[in-house]
Fold:
Amino acid sequence: MSDPHIVMVGERSGLGYAHIHREWAADLAALELASYPTADPGDLYDEPSLLLLAEDFAGGCFAAFDGDLLVAMGLGVRTHFDLDDPQHTIGDIVPHDNSGSGHVPDGDWYYGTGISTRPEYRRRGVGSELYVLRKQVCRDLNLRGIVAGGVIPGYAAHKDRMSADAYIAEVRAGRLYDPTLSFQLRNGFEAPCALAGYIEDPAVDNFAALIIWHNPDHSAAASGRVA
Structure:
């Protein structure tokens, strides 16, 4: 790894956060693959797609380092998103054929395409710190907020007796705990519905949760700079 330009040191984790670079693409791809062992690799970033992303929107993507060791990342793109027609798959955002990164330069939403953390660095505040950085991107670019398909790993234990929408409602109400969705709700996200066929992950019957964070500083009258 080349020396990253640190944009933030995590208050809790102590990790250094930097915008992604092209030369890290292979390591970033390996980190995501290791973080989602039950997902179809075709639904995850690979080295060519990460090279494109680093060219198109490095300023909206972050890698976390412990010294020279890559330990986490939070990736995303700008996009247009219709909250009234929210059903989509990750392939609708990031093309599987590496024809593009999915970044839309004038998009008015930040779409979170993935957060990955080495197991030994979890529960140290890394996810919350990545959301701090993503939310700042939204403020800096005057974006409407963050939208994403959030994985719901806890659904695997409940899928035989309830729908994904019912599971999300139970987590939203605090009656069930999901290791990912409960964390996102604590970080100010809404989770209005399930996304069917979002990602190829048989453990959860391919479902994810639609998660939304609205930027309270967004101004409809102003236009964010393109990055």
Summary: The helical segments are 25-35, 47-57, 90-93, 126-141, 164-172, 181-186.
